Amino acid sequence: MHFGYDDRTEELRGQLNAFMDEFVYPAEPVFEQQLAEGDPWSPPPVVAELKAEARKRGLWNFFLPGEHGAGLTNLQYAPLAEITGRSPHLAPTAINCAAPDTGNMEVLSMFGSEQQRKQWLTPLLEGEIRSAFAMTEPDVASSDARNIATRIERDGGDYVINGKKWFISGAMNPHCRIFIVMGKTDPDGEPHRQQSMILVPRDTPGMTIKRGMHVFGYTDGDHGGHAEIEFDDVRVPAENLIGEEGGGFAVAQARLGPGRIHHCMRLIGMAERAIELMCKRAVSRTAFGKPIAQQGVVQDWIAESRVRVEQLRLLVLKTAWLMDTVGNQGAHTEIQSIKIATPIQVEWILDKAIQAHGAGGVSQDTPLAGLWAHARTLRLADGPDEVHKRSLARRELAKYPR
Amino acid sequence: MHFGYDDRTEELRGQLNAFMDEFVYPAEPVFEQQLAEGDPWSPPPVVAELKAEARKRGLWNFFLPGEHGAGLTNLQYAPLAEITGRSPHLAPTAINCAAPDTGNMEVLSMFGSEQQRKQWLTPLLEGEIRSAFAMTEPDVASSDARNIATRIERDGGDYVINGKKWFISGAMNPHCRIFIVMGKTDPDGEPHRQQSMILVPRDTPGMTIKRGMHVFGYTDGDHGGHAEIEFDDVRVPAENLIGEEGGGFAVAQARLGPGRIHHCMRLIGMAERAIELMCKRAVSRTAFGKPIAQQGVVQDWIAESRVRVEQLRLLVLKTAWLMDTVGNQGAHTEIQSIKIATPIQVEWILDKAIQAHGAGGVSQDTPLAGLWAHARTLRLADGPDEVHKRSLARRELAKYPR
Amino acid sequence: MHFGYDDRTEELRGQLNAFMDEFVYPAEPVFEQQLAEGDPWSPPPVVAELKAEARKRGLWNFFLPGEHGAGLTNLQYAPLAEITGRSPHLAPTAINCAAPDTGNMEVLSMFGSEQQRKQWLTPLLEGEIRSAFAMTEPDVASSDARNIATRIERDGGDYVINGKKWFISGAMNPHCRIFIVMGKTDPDGEPHRQQSMILVPRDTPGMTIKRGMHVFGYTDGDHGGHAEIEFDDVRVPAENLIGEEGGGFAVAQARLGPGRIHHCMRLIGMAERAIELMCKRAVSRTAFGKPIAQQGVVQDWIAESRVRVEQLRLLVLKTAWLMDTVGNQGAHTEIQSIKIATPIQVEWILDKAIQAHGAGGVSQDTPLAGLWAHARTLRLADGPDEVHKRSLARRELAKYPR
Amino acid sequence: MHFGYDDRTEELRGQLNAFMDEFVYPAEPVFEQQLAEGDPWSPPPVVAELKAEARKRGLWNFFLPGEHGAGLTNLQYAPLAEITGRSPHLAPTAINCAAPDTGNMEVLSMFGSEQQRKQWLTPLLEGEIRSAFAMTEPDVASSDARNIATRIERDGGDYVINGKKWFISGAMNPHCRIFIVMGKTDPDGEPHRQQSMILVPRDTPGMTIKRGMHVFGYTDGDHGGHAEIEFDDVRVPAENLIGEEGGGFAVAQARLGPGRIHHCMRLIGMAERAIELMCKRAVSRTAFGKPIAQQGVVQDWIAESRVRVEQLRLLVLKTAWLMDTVGNQGAHTEIQSIKIATPIQVEWILDKAIQAHGAGGVSQDTPLAGLWAHARTLRLADGPDEVHKRSLARRELAKYPR
Question: Which residues of chain C have a CB within 8 Å of the CB of D363?
């Protein structure tokens, strides 16, 4: 267990923090204003400016190990992702490390054919296009991929897709050009070999974006929203299949580990932002004749928040270190642990920061309410907490055979 | 402690439930659709239809005791308000029992001059206009009325108002014709005699509605939103003052008790709706080969929810009975108790109902996320929980003099 | 729902409170001292003195409705039981309302033969002897009576008992003269008709009291402890059977309802005692230059405690009223609800009162730690909370058939 | 942040685990039996046997860095202390790493004169005698050393001690030969220079052990209990002073850091023991026709426990690493954090393990109830959680000057 920040990490942290201070935080009010006035489903123009600046500075594709990306380990990326979590609407996109593109690039990088990589991975890595990942379905408990109902059927040189997806993040962004769709090619096969993933370009006939799903009152339009999509005899060439038929479950598993840890890293940053805002509010707001920083209950919130976030960060770092050293499979329990612990604890911290802000805390005047909605949703995304706890408990119990 | 439902209450409950079943619940999807398409700051047309139907049926002004209203006691009104809480965007407005009109009508009924009652109370009781209550301020802890910074200064036959308010619910609804504004007429007077309330008609020069405050992404546009308002030399005739100069604090106190219990009554109804939705989801959704109703964790949520809501209802009913028998002052501790207990417990129940729904739970496809945001906000409205706990504890401690 | 305190109740409350003030509270330190010095498994002598005084004053057998007892309703008894909960080692025994005698007297009163009532009920009602109820078994989940493993077999004019019981409260008190033992007379019968109850006098050959079970270090010796008992061919005459063969399950059900509500009533009193002690400590203990009563966190505990106990009391009173008006069966959900809610909430209140007392709070210098251990144990006694929640949830879910 | 286990640590872990398996766990039932039969204030004979065996194996004085002890770093000791926490009545004493001796040896090692070290440190290091640390007082909030009321007055060549202490662990063990007493030599001096520490041998005239304080129902007699002690003109030679006059506060601070982390390390081990027992119970106990390991609620407890204990361990390891690398002062926030987080979380885990065991969980048949009482008490020992949270919050807030 060696998970300090090495020199490379410290250097990048310095550069990233400088970028945050000089460009990202000042862009936040601009972003809010442009958002209120512009296209409801696209990132406001300031985001493109931030991307250009970040790229110029070499702050780019940190998430991707190996030759296609920045070549960082998970442990090196973790503290950088944390920093971007402090401004989650701007910073991850600015440095081309935003979900779901990150996971999609990983998939293409690991499993894509040369042609697929050239056509889709390259422009994604360049930040020229965006992408979506269509797995979740409204009618089944699709956190278990075996329940997927969407069909992908071979028909001559094509595959034909039929089914219904929802909460497909980013799909309504016109820059989102490519969809990775999960479906069943062999519904009667062995449970973990029934699924395949396939590439569906935007505007393919038969694919209808029906509406944007809300998250509490937010549309998340700047991220392209969360779409409900119908696939009605959508036909794509057979070479759009990613990897081999029946490989979808394995690809999904490979994709989820990094996705989960990235979310948790950023949540740590959100928590730090919340603590900072809570403290600033506490020292500046007066009630009953003294700053609320002197109220015992507020102090209790701050201390608890600090103690909780320290524990979460260590667990996330250990998980990153394990993924680097023994692989995602070996870090399975830890990945599940951070997925269970982080969203709900950060939600708690955000709740307290909101409460310290009074009515302003639930409004658009601080980022807190929006961050809260995001943290809350992560208790459900990629499978509800309860599913992960059940699975983790069963592994713990398996140590004690009757 | 006798707080069963008497015959009159049971009769009205029957009538109100019939109205809910026949008209309100079926109107919910219509409301959502009209909302998405229409004026962002007005109730959709279906609300006016519901009002007409409710009025025709005599389901009207239940909240107001005495001759001006339906003449019900708090104890009689409580179970009716609970029922309306099951569809809080539609039902309270439909029967003309929606905040902040209810509190404003109470104020006018108790403290308004004959002229004020004629001009504003009558059309409010008829449901012809809406109103707002401008007390909360962005820059001070205005849950303590002594902190109010807005100035109301006498100038000849007029009063001139300067200050800033926010979270003024309903203000952006064009039907909102009258504002009750709280400010200081005598900033150097005795702390509880510095404040006055005054009537400011919509479109009075100098009053600028700057923007709508959001609540977890929601604008609550159908209720006229929550406005930030600037008062810049707003001039109204002296007879617009409600009651006497320096009486504002007392009026605010008189207004808050019923306001708080109404909120809590409706929260009980929201909790019941949440339990109903959670159960329906649990019996119909399958995961791991069986309905999630058979999952122990889901059963735990349902049992806890039922046990908590039963306790809350009894405390609310006791409070209503006390207000009826010993007056709002005598029910002070209980009013504070329900304000402390109800929003946070109902928030918990809503959270579990959301979790049981998976991703759909945070979306617009169930009322749960919106109800959650409302319950969460009530932990801050009318003073954060912490202020009420502090006050209640001090009274408890005062029983034990050193 | 009418559950105020009627005149009879108020009169008895006055008398009981006077008895508490004059005799019970002053006896507490005497009790502690005698306990440290005397027989480890008997109530100290001061208890007998209190019993004599209580009886003289007519404060006796309040728990028992009907002609054999004081003839109070559950609703009348509830506030009296609450008062006794304030000094639970002394007061319930003093007025002959202590478990498990109460339940045993109910059983004998309802189901006992004339002979059984004469021999055992009469001296119990007189407070001359004590009794035990042997149901719980170490090796099975005996909160479900269908799991009972103890055998009761007919052999000529006798029954022969074999099995193992534990946590049999009061058994080691030499005044405990009679045991009601639950076992199976017909293990192959219909699940709810397999069990019978039978009377076993102390010192019947074959019954061995093996040891006293501890509860968080406490032996509860003043109550006769909690025994582990072996029954090895214990032979009693056939007329010792209570009611009919196969009636044991029904008798157990009849016994549990009142038992649970009595526990909850007393828990309310314990919570009130805890709040009182917490407040007294808070106003008298200084830290950081001021009484800890001025610490926001301590105020938060006090307010939460008050708000929670008010809700619990109302739910308990409603349950009592329901039992009086629609019977124990009709109050099933409410009895389960108070069993779920009361111990865990009172445990929370006691924990906070302990914390406010510092190290002294965990010691013998306040009653708090002992009360805590009792409340904690009630989350397990008569079936763990989880079993009751599961059952309650299933009834709630049954309202929504697929 | 490098806190893996190095080779030396792994080697010692192997040896210590072997010792636990071969000697300690098998000794637990022996210990319980000897305890029930022997001297109520001494460790049962089996403890001395374990000590002899441990010493023979070189498993000894791990806690003490530097030449006097085993020379381990905090980071090396942490995982060993964790292992001893699995059997906290036996293992820490067996390897001569039990509080309060550990802290006392540290004090003597760092601040003792040559004579003091020879007379007291040597036999303590040899495990020949035990010791006590007399700081806590009943009448003041003595977690703040500035409140200490005990007086230490110079009188010629002696010091004379007057005052009252309580919860002095180990004091009633006849093997406890030496007391380190904290008191004020200069009550009018600078607040942090008023206190001194002084050595008081057992049986010094004027020192009266009045009684043993209980912890819930436990006397902790095997550890020598927790004494209330009166010092009435207790006279010791001036050379018994530890360090210099006025140095008591600094010595106390130096002592507390390691003491706190040792407690937390052992708590981690207790949590692991609890999880193990909970799992074993879950797979072996049947209710409703299946092992309770299949109950969702039980799985939830197990998963939560695992996730929490992983976070706690990492925070404790980081703290140990910091103490080793930047010193106790530099690890101040982390020491406070583990003190805040560990006892309450481990208490939660123990509570769930108890609940999974049913009635047996609160009894002497598992170590769980005793461990619970210990964890609960650590929320108060060395200052209640609230004091530490307040202090930590103030440092966090100090980052944001107005």
Answer: 167, 213-215
Pick the CATH number of A130-246 from 2.40.170.20, 3.40.1260.10, 2.40.110.10, 3.40.47.10: 2.40.110.10
CB contact C218 to D (< 8 Å): yes
Q: Which fold has domain A7-125?
A: Butyryl-Coa Dehydrogenase, subunit A; domain 1 (1.10.540)
Q: Give which of C362, C366, C378 to mutate to test D binding, by max D Cβ within 10 Å.
A: C362
Between CA A23 and CA A57 the distance in angstroms is: 12
Give the minimum alpha-carbon distance from A79 to chain C in angstroms, rounded to a whole number.
34
CA distance A210 to chain B (A): 14
Taking Cα atoms as reference points, which of C382, C395, C182, C139 lies closest to residue C262?
Answer: C382
A279 near D CB under 8 A:
yes
**Closest chain D residue by Cα to residue C385:** D355
Cα distance between residue D138 and residue A402, in whole Å: 50
The answer on pLDDT for B146 being more than 90 is: no
Coil, helix or strand at residue B314: helix
Residue D18: how many other CB atoms lie within 10 Å = 12
| pLDDT of A201 strictly over 90 | yes
Place of tokens 């107005």: D402
Contact C245/C196 with Cβ under 8 angstroms?
A: yes
CA distances from A264 to A320, B136, C22, D243 (A): 11, 37, 61, 49
> Residue holding tokens 């923007």?
B211
Fold observed for domain B130-245: Butyryl-CoA Dehydrogenase, subunit A; domain 2 (2.40.110)
Average pLDDT over residues C117-131: 97
Pairing mode of beta strands D158-169, C290-291: unpaired
Domain with residues D250-397, CATH architecture? Up-down Bundle (1.20)
Verify whether the Cβ–Cβ distance D358 to C380 is below 8 Å.
Answer: yes
Q: How high is the pLDDT of residue B185?
A: 98
- Whether D308 shows a pLDDT value over 90: the answer reads yes
Distance, in Å, from the CA atom of C28 to the CA atom of C369, rounded to the nearest integer, reads: 15
In the structure, what pLDDT confidence band is assigned to residue D382 with cuts at 50, 70 and 90? confident
Assigned fold of C249-397: Butyryl-CoA Dehydrogenase, subunit A; domain 3 (1.20.140)
Determine which of C32-46, C190-204, C224-238, D301-315 has the lowest per-residue pLDDT on average: C32-46
CB contact under 8 A, B311 and C341: yes
| CB contact set of B276 (below 8 Å; sequence gap of 6+) | C400
Tokens of D294: 């299949």
Q: How far apart are the first and last CA of chain C?
A: 33
Task: Give the model's pLDDT for residue B86.
Answer: 98
Beta-bridge mates of residue B230? B164, B208
Residues A255-295 pLDDT 10s: 888 889 999 999 999 999 999 999 999 999 999 899 999 99
Burial of A224 (C-beta count, 10 Å sphere; 0-12/13-18/19+)? buried
Q: How many CB pairs under 8 A join B and D?
A: 14
Residues 348-377 of A with CB under 8 A from B: 354-355, 358-365, 369-370, 372-373, 376-377
- In tens, the pLDDT along D159-198 reads 999 999 999 999 999 999 999 999 999 999 999 999 999 9
CA-based nearest residue in chain D for residue C370 = D216
What is the three-class DSSP state of B244? Answer: coil
Segment A299-355, tens digit of pLDDT: 999 999 999 999 999 999 999 999 999 999 999 999 999 999 999 999 999 999 999
Contacts of residue C386 in chain D, CB cutoff 8 Å? 295, 297-298, 355
Query: Residue A68: pLDDT band by 50, 70, 90 thresholds?
Result: confident
Residue A170, beta-bridge partner list: none
For A64, the token pair is: 């991707």
